[in-house]
Amino acid sequence: MEYFLTEQQKLIKSIARRIAEERILPVRAELDEKEHFPWELIKDIANADLFRIFIPEQYEGMGEGSFALCIAVEELARACAGVALSYAADALGAFPILLYASEKQKQQYLPAIASGARLTGFGLTESGAGSDAGAIKTNAKRDGDGYILNGTKQFITNGGEAEIYTVIALTDPTKGARGASAFIVEKGTPGFTFGKKEKKMGIRCSATRELVFHNCRVPKENLLGKEGLGFIVTMKTLDSSRPGVGALAIGLAQGALEAAVNYARQRVQFGHPVSAIQAVQHMLANMAMELEAARALVYATAKTIDSGAKNFTEEGAMAKVFATDMAMKVTTDAVQVFGGVGYMRDYPVEKMMRDAKINQIYEGTNQVLRNVIALELLRRKGLRE
Question: Residue ranges of the domains in the chain?
């Protein structure tokens, strides 16, 4: 479908696709097998200035916004969701700084993020606080001119590889979620270490680790906004990042659909390509329709964000849920089109199906996000104009 991209957006799409096809495709199986973080590819992405897309111009970025970021993520995910996630998670870690940092903090951190010199991560999830973000236990006690952090964050994307983290911790446990605050914590800060690298079903080249804080002193200048703003920082950050998750799912599904179509043309059974079998044709048609519907929703949501809309919680949740459910179905159907060989690691759809599952879980499970959508729906006092 035609989305009338600007010349700059077309250039971003072209550059991201070239990196995907020339640099990522040849090594994606090896990265998945060895579970290596794709530092060389991250450098390629940085050299192509793709980290600048979502950073405003005054901080050495392009100021292109959410839609252009979704375009880049989608193209990278066509080749490898793990590499695309390593890139997209940098935006997730940067959003709290973009949304709530002081001018001094922005000047200090955003140029390095824009250049790709320093990756970021977002420290929210804990063993007892997944979908229930308000159940976090990591705490930050005021101590003189700083805060002392104690606690453990779990399943943090880019954990151990990133150098800048936004960490959500309780500054007043008596207030529950309203007592949470957000801090910028840099790798190498005394008392800040990392747990083991998780071994995962999919997105294996993406690094997932614990963030461990043991009497970690953070200067008061690293507080984002003010005390008690942590939960709002979290919700607004996730609202902004969810279209990117949707875009990753779209790219992943696009790669699976293309692989399935190509294989169906080549695989001969009963004397003709399996693409001539109507049952297979219907599967491919459904995959294509669902993919295009998801793309339209994600793009529209990203453009809504770029328009300056104040509240897009419902749209962000819809885009994430619809696109990631679609990707799980499309990648599963792609394996079915391939038949037995689709289950083997020699073919890419096996990896794609494994990679798809996590998208329905992180940044809000699709079940919880359906609750969010319903809540937004029920809060309306009347029909939208």
Answer: 7-119, 121-230, 231-379
